[in-house]
Amino acid sequence: MQKKQMFADRLLAQMPSLRALRCFVTAARYESFTQAAEVLCVTQAAISRQIKELEDSLEVALFERTGRHIALTDAGRILYNASYLSIMNIAEAAEAVRRTDRHALTIAVSHTFSALWLSFRLPSFRKRFPEIRLHVMVTEHFMELDDLMQPDIIITKNPPREPEYEIEPLFHDVVYPVCSPSFHERHFHGRSLKPLDLLAHPTLNLSLLGRAQVCEHVDWRVWRNRFQQGDGSDRLVENEHLESNDYRLLVAQAEAGEGTLLGWHHLVHRQVEQGRLLRPVQDALEFHDRHHYLITHQNARMRPEYQQFREWLGEEVGAMMGEWRSVEIEAAK
């Protein structure tokens, strides 16, 4: 009996770290270090480092690497088959324990929503409900959540397919042009502008690259098609036209006076309120059929901390959209 115990202790001492195994299992599932990094909310370099340390400790290659493509070796397949089930059992047990903590709430949002909407509102929530411990995860992979990610709440335009989540609309899309006061002074001062006049000056454009729902994409060509008078002219100034799939970068460039940006109301209204951005025209695109959704895990709905977060979120969204309605009423007078 003592020998068996000593053998078990030796195995535990020689066992790879759980962090390294988690990185390995996720990379093996997706056959991609990049996607594993997205799922686990770490850098690709961190994934590579953990897997290298795992391979070094085992003294065997776990992946065959061909350019950017990776595939499991025979040794890697053996380790994956054993470690995947173990990792999932640990993850499920940890989730069960986590959900017994009546004061913890896990929220998943996109990078842009986290930076431009949630970040400056969180202090008010934490001050109002100091007893609730928030875990905020950022990801762009909402359509198919990894088994290792089971948040209580998701806020996104792209609802996941998992049946354990309940979905309801939170707010609809409102899009309007914004630019900095300095840009407006240089290009538009004293002019009575029409919607298409903006296209004759430098613009900032959100690209399609990496967009999850291409059918809902809005860029300056959508703006032009909405307001053009049928002459078919393309007034977009391509040589003065910055494009990126990082909306946070584009907002920063707009604030720096580099061009006019199509601003989603929920992401830029604070900058407009503070005077860092302004609306050069009062025209806007309003999409009542395109929503951000509040997506709730079925096990979270009756928990008091969820009810408190939902109440706070409803107040914040109500104030934000109420402000938009007030602006529209004032513009219509």
From TrEMBL:
InterPro entries: LysR-type_TF_proteobact-type, LysR_HTH_N, LysR_subst-bd, WH-like_DNA-bd_sf, WH_DNA-bd_sf. SUPFAM superfamilies: Periplasmic binding protein-like II, Winged helix' DNA-binding domain. GO terms for molecular function: DNA binding; DNA-binding transcription factor activity. The keyword Ligase does not apply. Residues 16-73 form the HTH lysR-type domain. Belongs to the LysR transcriptional regulatory family. This is LysR family transcriptional regulator. The lineage of its organism: Bacteria, Pseudomonadati, Pseudomonadota, Betaproteobacteria, Burkholderiales.
